[in-house]
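Hey team,

Filing this mostly as a record. A colleague (T.K.) asked me to run one chain through the structure pipeline before their review meeting, and I want the input and output archived in the tracker in case anyone asks later how it was produced. No errors, nothing strange. Just documentation.

Input sequence:
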Amino acid sequence: MELNLDIANRISERTPNLCHLAPAGPTYMEDLDEAGGVYAVMAELTKRGLLDTGCMTVTGHTVGENLADVVNENPDVIRTAENPFSETGGIAVLRGNLAPDGSVVKRSAVAPGMLVHEGPARVFDCEEDAQAAINAGKINPGDVIVIRYEGPKGGPGMREMLAPTASIQGMGLGESVALITDGRFSGATRGACVGHISPEAASGGAIGIIEEGDTVSIDIPDNSIELKISQEEYDARMVAFVPKTKKLTGYLRRYAKLVGSGANGAVLD
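Output structure:
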């Protein structure tokens, strides 16, 4: 099946966000379970006609039959369809001159004041360098941290950037600092953290031409991410850009040579 990232936006546009579990919210998995679990979430979604209740399931009954007697026991944990946390879903795909093939952000975990953010780039060519700068207090409110060469080919393997994002939150910068990367995040990430930027730096993507101090613009409601330089400067940098390479051997060398874009699932070509 050919992946189409824009499907995520189309689904998010019509699917309300009903749960805010940790770390994005104050409730936990056990709270969700006690409130009725995933079945209770599904039952709320059926109120908007978002599920095909006629689908047969492994229980031997249809979705609708499985949900017939389900009750939402705690509307503070599982919001009702009439009173969601937000009218849009948790994931947004952003595109622009920094990510023509797409990038992904967990919109539901972004502070309202960071849904639109513009700031100076702080550029790092690996996770470790970014982490060292954060630990040393070198990141300022308003900055946009750029971590590149951590994509499928550049990593190699598309490492998870959880440590830098957790540190940003822990240092009280979660509502003033954004982070973008061609690496990935897990479900534990919160804040204005945009991952999966494609094409990645190691494949010649535009994230590789960002220079320290450049202005980066993130507009999640508009599904856009842009490097704010002139088109002439952008084109000149892209022409002159030579991606960095790592000295690899064995299976990692084979993987880095053959792996495709994160926008297509990071599978071997």
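Quick notes for T.K.: The helical segments are 6-14, 29-34, 37-46, 63-67, 127-135, 162-170, 231-240, 250-258. DSSP finds eight helices and eight strands in the chain.
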